[in-house]
Give the backbone structure.
Amino acid sequence: LAQQGIPTDSLTFRDDINLTTLHTEDKLSLTLVDHNIIRARGDEDLDSVVVEVIDHHKDERAESDACKKTVETVGSCTTLVAERILEKDASVMNKQLATLLM
């Protein structure tokens, strides 16, 4: 991150956001990346707001029309994320983003 000029204080972590409050206020939708089910104890109720999964592990998520799944056996989930970025808007794939995805 430092090599790309990204300060660590600009990162947001799971513990920085009260997901339960957002869920209660109906202001939450989640995309799971590099996991296809929620395993964190106490977060099981958040499963109902998972709208997308991008993962390369064994698929453990039940099929649902409410959740788009991309689960493919590739070496790294980053491959799937990069493909998704290129599908949505390839113009955002600059040198910095490509380096961060490596």
